[in-house]
Write a structure and sequence with these properties.
Largest sheet of chain A: 7 strands, mixed
Strand content of chain A: 15-25%
Distance between the termini of chain B: 36 Å
Distance between the termini of chain A: 49 Å
CATH class of the largest domain in chain B: Alpha Beta
Oligomer: heterodimer
Helix content of chain A: 25-40%
Mean pLDDT of chain B: 94
Low-confidence stretches of chain B: 480-489
CATH superfamily of chain A: Aconitase, domain 4
CATH topology of chain A: Aconitase, domain 4
Order of helices and strands of chain A: EHHHEHEHEHEEEHHH
Strand order of the largest sheet of chain B: 5-4-3-6-7
Number of domains of chain B: 2
Chain lengths: 205, 489
């Protein structure tokens, strides 16, 4: 995983609340594994593209004035619903490194951190402020994970909470698999104290 | 030791290792949690298997892993030559890959020919693999279903699936607790599905974020295990990654004699242990809500998330009453998608499709409920009805009881088991614009097919819509042959 660096970016705003992972990556595209970049192409497909597969002129994600944006700001409860990690892959493949909302679906939040996508929780008032900032495509915000703060165009600094362990993993680009494999002895010792039989499926009768 | 909730007891029992940048006692630090049972299905395990191979890793406990095929599997019967109908070009390859991965890594699989195959959250309990006090995960958000047994069961992403495969553990932050109490007795015609939709209508779709629900109260105790599974299934729709119900005699009776449940002296010891799991009398929850089950009516959704639900006799809310402009815009957009008018009733609304199935409502008792409405009736002209049992075992049990005949005689399609029209990636789906009454869990835009419109409801309400062709109150169905609709599931 790439270490998370401080960056600044225009904001892309999706003001709707409860944007679910079925919208982020519709199931009909997920029947087979997609090639690299494929998930980015289907991101929010039914909102972004018309019946002929053309980008809708009002699609915030595709605003030419915000090319290269890495920060998404969205309504409450972003990423609710299904556990599909494709929702996160679609966002990272489309270039996003940060999503800001008042709350996130728990599974989406976990998936995001596993893929170097920083979910930032802000209060309702800050969210409204960010929506206003996003109205002007010239406005840029700085995301500083070292200092755990957002810097707005007027210089205002907004601190955000982040779990110290998650922050450490993001900043160092660490993946948690390595951590789990390294504590093999502790796992083995737990297993010794908590034996569970191997599943033997019944023979068909 | 201070009094603990059910969740805290199961959590404490599975802590392998504490970790943290501020030392092992840092409360914000994640812990390493042991996973007793890892369920797999063919879709979300794909990338995890690939990740394991890339890194040359083995599966740590293949014997605590169990695979099935449900999401992409067609529910049409096999052809006369025994071949699988190809309704999705990529399905055969995905199924073959899942089968090969499980064989190679020694993971037991309820494969395409297994008479035990079915929806992952149906087969775990049915086989007795799901037990009280366990930690259970699956790359599927409806893993919460299995919390009905007093297990801590939750959905995970594909990266976590790979982590559990390799280490049988997950790094987890402890969730907060949220008691959802259903007092009183549900009225006839009101099912578990109505209770959970009533909760979601009251608290919304994000109330449970960061929490684990524990469902308590007399109306929960009165439910069968299948009804309890319906409730826990939709915990994730309230934002809670897991929902739990304390195990009791109903739980033990359900599990006794199931193939993967403990047996003999081991059974007795297990029950003794399971009896210690319910929350201590003085245990505290971080949040709580109480619902009077006796006041709950049959429920139906009207919008594009499950919190947008109402009593079936109610009216779609007026958008003018919503003060917050973004909330109002969301409601307007939802009603626009649903092609419903603010203030309108849903009773009498013509429907195109009725779907009975999914991990929410595809068990035998769900099919029995629907069959009681369907008996001696016909699916209304112009309505398509699909009945998809949750597993091959449910299918056989329903056929032994003659339920398939009731559905077929009424003009419904009776299918093989699978996720079917709940996920719409297996050939079963709505056409754009079609309106369905569906026993599933999500009414998100396009969930049941691009442009499809979903009204979530119980099997009774779905069946009532099928025979009348319009949204109907199941309590008002005249009874040609059967007893009053006393429902205790």
């Amino acid at each position: 995983m790439e270490p998370f660096r401080t960056f600044d970016s225009p904001l892309i705003a999706l003001t709707r609340a409860n944007i679910d992972t079925d919208q982020l990556t519709p199931a009909r595209f997920l029947k087979k594994s997609l090639p690299p970049g494929g998930y980015g192409e289907i991101l929010l497909y039914d909102w972004r593209f018309d019946a002929d597969g053309q980008v809708r002129p009002d699609s915030p994600i595709d605003d030419p004035a915000r090319q290269g944006a890495t920060v998404l700001v969205a309504g409450d409860n972003f990423g609710c619903g299904s556990s599909r990690e494709t929702a996160v892959w679609a966002l990272t493949e489309a270039g996003f490194r940060t999503v800001i909302s008042t709350s996130f679906g728990d599974i989406f939040h976990t998936n995001a951190l596993k893929n170097g996508l920083l979910p930032i929780r802000v209060d309702e008032e800050t969210l409204e402020r960010l929506f206003r900032v996003a109205e002007n495509p010239e406005n840029r915000v700085t995301v500083d994970l070292e200092e755990t703060c957002l810097v707005l165009p007027d210089g205002a600094r907004i601190e955000f909470p982040v779990d110290p362990f998650a922050r450490e993993c993001l900043l160092r680009g660490l993946d948690q698999m390595g951590y789990l494999l390294a504590i093999d002895e502790a796992i083995a010792s737990y297993e010794e104290g908590h034996p569970l039989p191997a599943i033997q499926l019944p023979e068909p009768s | 030791m201070s009094p603990r909730t059910l969740f805290e007891k199961v959590w404490d029992d599975h802590v392998v290792h504490r970790n943290g940048t501020n030392g092992p006692d840092d409360p914000s630090a994640p812990v390493v949690l042991y996973i007793d049972l890892h369920l797999l299905h063919e879709l979300t395990s794909r990338r995890a298997f690939a990740a394991l191979k890339e890194r040359g890793l083995a599966v740590r406990r293949p014997g605590r892993t169990l695979g099935t095929i449900d999401h992409i599997y067609p529910t049409l019967p096999r052809g006369a030559d025994g071949s699988l109908p190809v309704v999705e070009a990529s399905a055969p390859a995905t199924i073959a890959q899942m089968t090969e991965n499980c064989r190679e890594l020694g993971i037991p699989l309820l494969g395409e020919d297994s008479p035990l195959r079915g929806i992952v959250h149906v087969v775990g309990p049915e086989l007795g693999a799901t037990q009280p006090g366990m930690t259970i995960v699956c790359g599927d958000s409806h893993t919460s279903t299995q919390g009905a047994f007093g297990a801590l069961a939750f959905g995970i992403g594909s990266s976590e699936v790979a982590e559990v495969m390799a280490s049988q553990c997950l790094l987890q932050k402890k969730a907060k607790t949220f008691e959802v109490r259903f007092d009183g007795t549900a009225q006839p015609g009101v099912t578990a599905k109505d209770l959970i939709l009533a909760l979601l209508a009251q608290v919304g779709v994000d109330a449970g974020t960061g929490h684990v629900f524990e469902y308590t109260g007399s109306a929960i105790r009165a439910l069968s295990m299948e009804g309890r599974m319906t409730i826990c299934n939709m915990s994730i729709e309230g934002g809670a990654r897991a929902g739990m119900i304390a195990p009791d005699d109903t739980t033990f009776e359900y599990l006794a004699g199931r193939p993967l449940a403990p047996a003999g002296a081991d059974w007795d010891r297990s029950v003794e242990r399971w009896r210690q799991l319910p929350s201590d009398p003085d245990a505290r929850y971080d949040r709580s809500v109480t619902i009077d089950a006796s006041a709950v009516e049959p429920m139906i959704s009207f919008g594009t998330n499950p919190g947008m639900s109402m009593p079936i006799t109610g009216a779609v809310p007026a958008t003018t009453g919503v003060a917050d402009p973004e909330e109002r815009a969301d409601l307007e957009r939802a009603l626009g998608y649903m092609q419903l008018e603010p203030g309108q009733a849903l009773l009498g609304q013509p429907v195109d499709v009725v779907f009975i199935g999914s991990c929410t409502n595809s068990r035998l008792s769900d099919l029995e409920l629907a069959a009681r409405v369907m008996r001696d009736r016909r699916v209304a002209e112009g309505v398509r009805m699909l009945v998809v049992p949750g597993s091959q075992q449910v299918k056989r049990a329903a056929e032994e009881k003659g339920l398939d005949r009731i559905f077929r005689d009424a003009g419904a399609e009776w299918r093989e088991s699978g996720c079917s029209m709940c996920i719409a990636m297996n050939g079963d789906q709505l056409a754009p614009g079609q309106l369905a009454v569906s026993t599933t869990n999500r009414n998100f835009e396009g969930r049941q097919g691009k442009g499809g419109r979903t009204l979530l409801a119980s099997p009774l309400t779905a069946a009532a819509a099928a025979v009348t062709g319009v949204v109907s109150d199941p309590r008002r169905m005249t009874e040609p042959a059967s007893a009053p609709l006393e429902v205790t599931t």
